[in-house]
Design brief:
33% of the residues lie in helices and 31% in strands. It is built from two helices and four strands, in the order βαββαβ. It has helices at residues 11-23, 52-62, and strands spanning 2-8, 29-32, 44-50, 68-71. It has a four-stranded antiparallel beta sheet. The longest helix is centred in the N-terminal third of the chain and has 13 residues, at 11-23.
Length: 72
Amino acid sequence: MSEIQIKAGSVTNAQRIESLLKRNGYRATIRRSSRIAKGEGCGYSVILKGESGKVLELINNSRIKYKEFKVL
């Protein structure tokens, strides 16, 4: 399992992603980014540990928009 960071475009989408992941058994938390570049949205990310392929598939099937999916 690896640590995953999902950057959301809005706090609402970050909350939707967190809720989706928790309903599916993941321990997800929302974090505010300390440095936000112009065009990155609100600066909220969802952090969790899991298998990146399964998490990415789950989010893409839900059609919740996100800015970036990164395995740390």
